[in-house]
Amino acid sequence: MIRENYLGVDVCRIDMKDALDEVDRIISNRKPSFVVAINPEKIMKAQKDESLRNLLNSASMQIPDGVGVVIASRFKGGKIRSRVTGIELMENICKVSAKKGYRVFLLGAKPGVAEGASDILKKRYPGLNIVGTRDGYFKDEDEVIENIKASSPDVLFVAMGSPKQEYWITKNMDKLGVPLCMGVGGSYDVICGNIKRAPKWMCSIGLEWLYRLIKEPWRYKRMAVLPVFLLKVLFGVKRK
User: Fold this and answer.
1) How many Å apart are CA 108 and CA 188, to the nearest integer?
2) Nearest-angstrom CA–CA distance, 38 and 15
3) Closest CA to 188 of 137, 151, 133
4) In degrees, to the nearest 5, what angle opens at C-alpha 19 toward C-alphas 46 and 194?
5) Where do the domains of the chain lie, and which CATH numbers do they carry?
6) What is the distance between the alpha carbons of residues 41 and 229, in angstroms, rounded to a whole number?
7) Is 46 within 8 Å of 35 (Cβ atoms)?
8) Name one GO biological process term (predicted).
């Protein structure tokens, strides 16, 4: 896949169709792989954390999740033109899985949330085979890994918050043997209605961050990362 590199972090030059084509390829190959969503906050964290930067760059696919990444690409003459958000990719993977028979496992979030998301997703995408769910509040990691392995999923979604979920995936990916693993943050809560997403029109024009800031003003420090990221990008960034 063609990638652009911003402040040392790779981002795939893809849209949703490309991402889903790559998902099919990964599942077909059966080699344990993982997908990570890239936004300015993660890129800025990776500036001070080499292990995080290496982890992000080791993914099979880095989706352009944040509007800041799209803006940066335009500034630097790149060709990333649209976001591929984590929750939208997750839902599209579920839609494809319902048609193609991919087996899905939901791991993470508070007790009861993964089960609730599973029920909603199965109603939303008839035929979707969710072979297991497990909350993220477990003590016996080996038992969880064996549970997932016994379910033989093609896709494993992990909701533990980032980058914890990505570290967990890469630590256990080879043991799990699941072709496609993806960290999905708070997506189960969004699906269950516990967290409200911005209206579609705001998402479509890249203003989801503003909606979240209005709803959760205490996040302003995290939102302040975006202008800092863009200023850093303007002073030189390598693309590949």
Assistant:
1) 9
2) 13
3) 133
4) 70
5) 85-195 (3.40.50.2300)
6) 8
7) no
8) cell wall organization
Alpha helices in 101-217 (DSSP H): 113-124, 141-151, 164-176, 187-192, 200-204, 208-215
* pTM passes above 0.70: yes
The pLDDT of residue 200 is: 72
> Is residue 62 within 8 Å of 3, Cβ to Cβ?
yes
pLDDT tens sequence across 32-79: 999 999 999 999 999 899 999 999 999 999 999 988 999 999 989 999
Distances, alpha carbon 13 to alpha carbons 74, 80, 197, in Å: 12, 5, 25
Q: Tokens 């982890």, residue?
A: 55
Tell me which residue has tokens 């997750």: 90
